[in-house]
Amino acid sequence: MPGLPRLKDAYDFVVVGAGHAGLQAGLKAALLQHTAALIDRGPKYSRSYYAPRMDNIPGFPGGISGHRLLDHQVQAVRAHEDRVGYFAPARAAHVERSDAGYAVTFEWLKQTHVARGRALVLAMGVVDRIPEVGGRIEPIFPWANAGIVDFCVFCDGHTLPDKTVAVIGHDAFAAHTALDLLHFRPRSVALLTHGRPLLADAAEEERTALLRAFAEHDIEVVLAAMTGFEEIREKRFGVTFADGRRASYDKGFAALGWYDMHDAIPRALGCRFDPDGYVVTDEDCRALSAGTGEPIPGLYCVGDQRNGWNQIPEAWATAERAVIHAYAQFL
Ligand SMILES: Cc1cc2nc3c(=O)[nH]c(=O)nc-3n(C[C@H](O)[C@H](O)[C@H](O)COP(=O)(O)OP(=O)(O)OC[C@H]3O[C@@H](n4cnc5c(N)ncnc54)[C@H](O)[C@@H]3O)c2cc1C
Fold first, then answer.
1. Domains of the chain and any CATH numbers
2. Ordered mean pLDDT values, 10 residues apiece, the chain (331 residues)
3. From ligand 1's centre to the CA of 136, what distance in Å?
4. Which of 54, 62, 93, 236 is the most exposed place for a label (fewest CB within 10 A)?
């Protein structure tokens, strides 16, 4: 068991969020002979923690689960504990910027601490919205943990050829997701709106185009609310509906968007956001100011929290870019 990290008076980097992106930022900082404090709520809050098998991770031809990959990354960071403090489970609550850099107030071991760094890397990721049944989100967890219900087209689209797929959602994002999945040649796609009206918020033109595409591709729309899930033993996504119907699909696909974009800290620091709510950065992952559009000195944003493609290789690449930029140009 590694010992508890000791908080230094000051670091080169403070990294808020240590999922795949934040852990890579900490590792790279150490390799470049810098110090870093990593503040993380814990691996189970990473988006990938419930990904049972990921097939696009270099070096793992048979795939690897999200939590095993996080374990590897935590181990790699812990090997540099002289330079990198990994504070978890810890929650960053507040950040202040001054001429000296950034001061991050965080809760750790039931006490309030402040980590000071010349540069700050935001790597808090985003949180998926989970379908509620009877006001609870837990009912779908077993199906998600077993990889029977997926959340990410880029991650799991390749598992869909010849499958019957039920997409959960009611808005334009869900409708586009249902159509995007056709690229992977499923046998059929249905959209379960879970009691919500279909495309109620979409502009008339978009609504008409989407409905036409649905008709063209035989996408069934089920408007009844879901009341329960079944058939996990058969590795299927069985659904019961409020109107008494039952349906059985090979796969489910949640397309409900984001529950939390973790925007409070970047908003307080004056970051610019894109229309989807992601932090806008330049190519070196420097966060841009909402006011001037210029990079905010010493502030970086990496991984899913910035405007990008929400994939682990990209989380790693953006972390590398940010830390190398800070090493070469800022620190
Ligand atoms: C079901 C599923 C399957 C997936 N499959 C794949 C796949 O096959 N391949 C692939 O490339 N990608 C996959 N992804 C996407 C991948 O999980 C994300 O792209 C990746 O996790 C992004 O890394 P990140 O570090 O930006 O965010 P995360 O890994 O989500 O980490 C963010 C971290 O920030 C921490 N945090 C947030 N707020 C605070 C705070 N205030 N204080 C302290 N810590 C905080 C959280 O604890 C968390 O650990 C999948 C996602 C899901 C949901």
1. 11-126+261-330 (3.50.50.60), 130-254 (3.50.50.60)
2. 86 98 98 98 92 95 96 97 97 96 97 98 96 95 94 93 98 97 98 97 96 98 97 98 97 95 97 96 98 98 95 98 96 89
3. 22
4. 62
